[in-house]
């Protein structure tokens, strides 16, 4: 290993402390209390703001301005599906929190079909999922499209207690397995997936569009309480 275990421990501590302890001391040029995942502003009219962005309103161009230009935009498609237009960041600093970020562009299905026809190439990702590279003309055009959803995968593991400490009690708790739980916050337009066997996932939409997150969960098998 290139780094001593003590250095690794310090790095991990720097990442996890903001989730656990409020008002972490500021580092030079960084405000630890800005653009953190649990800072969701709602406007009382069905809209929200997180990371300086408004799901359903802010465009992909605005995402670039707020989160950085190093975004990989492509169509991600399962077999026999049109696919979704997504932008992917391998690493973004959200305050002191490092995370992978995926934004879903609100593109009409017909537009995605047309982009696929003009696409330069397609490559397989995990399993049979395909990543379809856009034509340069389409890459330029999608910058003006709004972003429907923002998904965040923190580099540190979060437990349910930590999530509730930061986001408050959920409006609904949905256990889909022994180790996988959805903590739903309709008023924030947020679904936090706590996964004991994998990485946690935070999904943000405008509160008025919370059905985009909730309705797919109705089709999932839900764990029944013990003894029933």
Structural account:
The chain has 228 residues and is an alpha+beta fold. Helix content is 25%, strand content 29%. It is built from 6 helices and 12 strands. The strands form 2 sheets. A 10-stranded antiparallel β-sheet has the order 6-7-3-4-5-8-12-11-10-9. A two-stranded antiparallel sheet has the order 1-2. The longest helix has 16 residues, at 5-20. The chain starts with a helix and ends in an 11-residue tail after the last helix.
Short summary:
By secondary structure, the chain is an alpha+beta fold. 25% of the residues lie in helices and 29% in strands. The chain has a 10-stranded antiparallel beta sheet.
Shape: globular
> What topology, given as strand order, has the largest sheet?
6-7-3-4-5-8-12-11-10-9
- Helix and strand string, N-terminal first? HEEHEEEHEEHEHEEEEH
Count of discrete alpha- or pi-helical segments spanning 4 or more residues: 6
Rounded to the nearest angstrom, the radius of gyration is 19 Å
Tell me, rounded to a whole number, the average pLDDT: 85
DSSP, total strands = 12
Structural class from helices and strands? alpha+beta
Share of residues in strands: 25-35%
Helix content: 10-25%
Largest sheet: 10 strands, antiparallel
Low-confidence stretches: 1-28
How far from one another are the termini? Answer: 49 Å
